[in-house]
Write a structure and sequence with these properties.
Number of helices: 2
Helix content: 10-25%
Strand order of the largest sheet: 1-4-5
Bound molecules: zinc ion
């Protein structure tokens, strides 16, 4: 069990505190399949990410994007972003 702390990054930088509310959450739906690597172990390289919007009581808004399911090998769809360019 891990607890996630959600704080407004702008308020935190300013040394303020604020209440944070969750907004719309969207998840990408790309097709993918798990595969077995050279070590025979199953890898879940799920390219899909979930983006959740947050809004703080001071009016700041931001989005947090996380992998739907990171692989145990450390692979993450977020680290692949930008390598296409
Ligand atoms: Zn804020
Ligand atoms: Zn993997």
């Amino acid at each position: 069990m891990s607890s996630t702390i959600i704080q407004c990054p702008q308020c935190r930088d300013a040394g303020q505190t604020s209440e944070v509310r969750r907004g719309i959450s969207t998840t990408t739906t790309e097709y993918w399949e798990p595969y077995f690597g050279e070590d025979g172990k199953k890898h879940h390289h799920n390219p899909n990410v979930a983006t959740t919007l947050y809004k703080c009581s001071e009016g700041h808004q931001w989005a947090i994007t996380v992998p739907v399911r990171p692989c145990r090998c450390g692979w993450s769809p977020l680290s692949e972003e930008g390598s296409d360019e």
